[in-house]
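Bench log. Compound arrived from synthesis this morning; before running ITC I wanted a structural hypothesis for how zinc ion sits in the protein. Inputs:
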Amino acid sequence: MPVRHCACCYYCGRYFRPDCRHKTDQKACQRADCRRRRKQEAQQRWTKTNPGYFRDRYSNTQQWREAHPDYQRKRRRRLKSREIQDASLLDMIIGHH
Ligand SMILES: [Zn+2]
């Protein structure tokens, strides 16, 4: 994969140097405003395609874990399953770390 040495920020339009530690393609610079907007957009995009998916069923992560007691075990065995992808997104959206 080609390495980009500089890029134009998607939000503020300024040139920035992508952090080489990031594996994914960066489209926003390191300014706090741009990072926040990028994160918000990602969450909005997901909640748009999955309207009320988790929030309607489980009000918090603890409830979700109780309903899926073998999640940690499955996570290692079935990394590619749709269920695990959703679970990762749940953690991201609810912000439970
Ligand atoms: Zn920016």
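What the model suggests: Strands lie at 7-8, 15-16. Residues 1-37 form one domain.
ITC booked for Thursday regardless.
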